[in-house]
TrEMBL record:
Residues annotated as transmembrane: none
Residue ranges occupied by any ABC transporter domain in the UniProt entry: 6-245, 258-500
Record organism: Pseudogemmobacter humi
EC number(s) recorded for this UniProt protein: 3.6.3.17
Name of the molecule in the record: Xylose import ATP-binding protein XylG
Lineage: Bacteria, Pseudomonadati, Pseudomonadota, Alphaproteobacteria, Rhodobacterales
Amino acid sequence: MPDPIFEARNISKRFGPVRALNEVSIAIGAGELHSIIGENGAGKSTLMNIFCGRLRPDTGALLIDRQPVHFSSPKQAAAAGIAIAPQEINLVPALSVAENIMLGAQIGARICGGAVIDWKATRAEAIRHLHEVDDQIDPASRVGDLSKAQQQLVQIARAAATDARILILDEPTATLTHRETARLFDYIRSFKARGHSIFYISHRLDEVKALSDRITVLRDGALAGTLDPATATREEMVTLMAGRPPSAMRQEPRRIPGDAPVVLKVTGLTRPGEFQDLSFSLRKGEILGVSGLIGSGRTEMAKCLFGLTRATAGEIEYFGQKTRFTSPLQAIQAGLIYLPEERKQEGIFPLLSIVENAAMPSMARFRGLLAMRNREMLAEVMDYIALLKTRIGSPRDAITTLSGGNQQKVIIARWLMRDAKVLIMDEPTRGIDVNAKFEIQAVLRRLTEERGLSIILISSEMEEVLDVADRILVMHEGRARGIVDAAGESQESLLKLAMT
């Protein structure tokens, strides 16, 4: 590696009794993309927040061009040339795309001896940065009207607008389409070609290997190893991250008996502009994977089954009865539950505790004559926490103290307490590390086998549906391209089916 332009030496950080980082040293050179990978809770976000001034280390030092630096705010880090595009959207919904990109960095002008914002120049600069990242987004659009993927791209453009020498990208492709991802990768290459550097965090190991100049693995807050992407294998990366090989975590293929009762049957379901003529069935104890590229109509189909939207044609049979849920409340009362892909925005109550999040839809069951039966509620929640092998501190802690994988388990516990019969899970492991992903997959298998739960699992990761599903519905542009047994299929065969 050439002389580093940025170094972190022996960085340690604690939050109370929890050791988040322990003597971590890392460096980056000019024009380098250095990927940081690890499980949720490995210390990646804590380290990046120290780099960009959001946190201060307990011990250790940061150096730029071999000179010590101390950041007490993101503004100081930005002034030193370090900017972050975080995984969580941090934009102002009511402002335009251009206003968000240049917020706090507007170009000034002097008129009649006074300082004002030169909006024409500011807008032109915003458009320049936006088009470097993606030229399909209208700079005049209100950010709140954009898709999550578009908001993520605007956030990256906003970080780039600081003229950073070092850009931190945290899960930048989690919500992007293939086109948007390819455009972002072009931007990353041009950013590096200008001599700038990138710390890249992602759970998508294939893109980590393709983009990186170096890969550093964190585990339990410590440095687990550094890999050369030219020679590293996915198995090596997973083993360093999880402390065990992926072969020890995978599920064995299985087949659901053909005479298992059908719990959900969909025939010719159509909603113009979203999906059309969808037909499939779901059996008791089965996991039906739904595969397809972003925009294939998978989420729209799930929302229609749950009663959030209405189909214009087709039939739905639920446990042998023709049914058309007209609201989510009807679906929930019948035991059909939808877990949305936007877990943090739509799945959890961030200001409430773990126990409150789990028990929220079941509160009426614990209402006493004069007060809530809190002990009974806590006991039942803890039974499900144990069943799902959820790692928590105190059940009274805020749910935001948990990793993404453990938050997802609490959401599953919530609906098991409501006697869920069918779970529709939309991208259930997005943003979750590989070990937590396998844990959730194992939980889903166990629930189908021990409780007879039936699951529709929607995922843009073909490897995931192959790992956990019994059968796979392949969708493309709103149509079903086929239903196949997961055993014996490959990512290549699924993609070929989707594109035919």
